[in-house]
Design a protein that fits this description.
This protein is 29% helix and 27% strand. With 403 residues, it is α+β, with helices and mostly antiparallel strands. The strands form three sheets. Strands 2-1-4-5-6-7-8-9 form an eight-stranded antiparallel beta sheet. It has a six-stranded mixed beta sheet with strand order 10-14-15-3-16-17. The protein has a three-stranded antiparallel beta sheet with strand order 11-12-13, with helices on one face. Helix 7 packs across helix 8 and helix 8 crosses helix 9.
């Protein structure tokens, strides 16, 4: 499955110019409030929205381009990602070429449009990189086929709507498999902003295959798993019971007005509890396991502050579950994936390797910067001496990431 190698963002609010280079299967972003962690997640959601509705509609709920563009800056908003279509950690002889996708958004007579867009790769070890998709202002060219070469014939492209990224249109055509692969990759990304109170809602009855961003359809997904994948639901309950003593079962039941309620059976009690009376931590653990054990999981999963409501001792368990997810060990499909997490928890940070931790902080100019922990001066030496990342963070050894 495809995986992200790097992500560069320019002129998106406090992210004036940041690059996450050499992302790992599991990457955790740490930093004080207001440092840009939520903005990073919003960029990922924004890219998906652009491919679904176009840049104008994606920008409107975010305050439009003047509000999204970094303060005092006049250049285009830029999102650039580098990725491989092969799975993370594939043997060298099975790795696909590194592909660069570059997207620029600016205004034209007060209207936001895609001003530049290209897909670039290099064929062969010594070949020169070239753009096999190159669009400026809605006009350009594309090289079709499974393995575009620089010498192949270019087909002209003229888009009717300059507010829609070209890959959203060209990725629908079978003659552009490389573009289609990127489109499918990005559209499979999933952002989780799980809100326990939303999971206590009573949604209309009906099975749903995947959890929503807020988790409001958790009863529907439980119904789907019970009907279509009872073995997965059983395994989810087995895992929860190891973390939450006495929890015997979770069922999704239809009410008289055709809505669904979650019921949790606690061992010592005869009657099950409604989700309204279950702790936030129990609902969160259930929701995360539902996401991680989805029969068709996302290729890139983003979770914001998963520690809220969970016992500190569960942080190590959660990190191990996330690592298992990236290896494809939790899903029937065995699909490998990447995970991006934001956190304020020293307990969660303690469970990480230094190359899995990214530290963000805003500089004196008000804009965010980011570094990976294993590249910070002195951190590898501290780790070799037995220090933990959480304690180093609290001791301010990172030199950033604290209020």
């Amino acid at each position: 499955m495809p995986h992200l190698f790097s992500l560069t963002i320019k002129n998106y609010r406090v992210l004036r110019n940041v690059t996450f280079q050499e992302l790992r299967p599991l990457s955790v972003v740490l930093g004080p409030n207001g440092c840009g962690k939520s903005t990073l997640f919003d960029v990922i959601g924004f890219l998906g929205d652009c491919l679904t509705w176009g840049v104008r509609k994606a920008l409107e709920p975010r305050g439009r381009l003047p509000e999204v563009r970094s303060r005092g800056e006049k250049g285009p908003l830029v999102i650039e990602l580098k990725y491989r279509e092969s799975s993370f950690g594939a043997p060298k002889d099975q790795q696909t070429p590194l592909v660069t996708y570059h997207l620029e958004i600016d205004d034209e007579r007060g209207r936001p449009i895609v001003t530049r867009e290209f897909l670039r790769w290099r064929r062969g070890q010594w070949g020169k990189p070239f753009n096999f998709l190159d669009i400026t202002g809605g006009t350009g060219s594309v090289i079709t086929g499974e393995e575009p070469e620089a010498t192949d014939t270019r087909r002209p492209v003229m888009l009717a709507d300059a507010t829609m990224p070209a890959i959203a249109t060209l990725g629908q055509l079978a003659e552009n498999p490389r573009v289609a692969s990127l489109l499918q990759f990005i559209r499979s990304w999933f952002l989780s902003y799980f809100i326990p109170d939303r999971a206590r809602d009573l949604p209309a009855a009906g099975a749903k295959e995947h959890l929503s961003r807020t988790g409001h359809n958790l009863p529907n997904v439980a119904q789907y798993l019970a009907e279509e994948h009872p073995d997965i639901l059983k395994e989810i309950l087995n895992r929860i019971q190891k973390r939450i003593p006495n929890l015997e079962s979770v069922t999704s039941e239809r009410t008289i007005d055709n809505r669904l309620v979650l019921r949790f059976k606690d061992g010592p009690f005869q009657d099950p509890f409604l989700a309204q009376h279950v702790s936030d931590g129990t609902l969160k653990m259930l929701a995360y396991l539902v996401m991680l054990m989805d029969p068709e999981p996302p290729t890139f999963l983003c979770i914001e502050e998963p520690e809220n409501g969970l016992h500190p001792k569960l942080m190590q368990v959660l990190v191990e579950e996330l690592r298992s997810f990236t290896r494809g060990a939790l899903s029937k499909s065995r699909r490998t994936a990447q995970v991006l997490v934001s956190s304020h928890s020293a307990y969660l940070v303690d469970a990480l390797h230094a190359d899995e931790l990214w530290v963000m902080q805003r500089g004196r100019d008000g804009f965010a910067g980011v570094d990976r922990a294993d590249r910070l001066q002195g951190i590898p030496e501290f780790i070799r001496e037995g220090s933990t990342l959480g304690s180093l963070w609290f001791e301010d050894q990172f030199g950033k990431g604290n209020p």
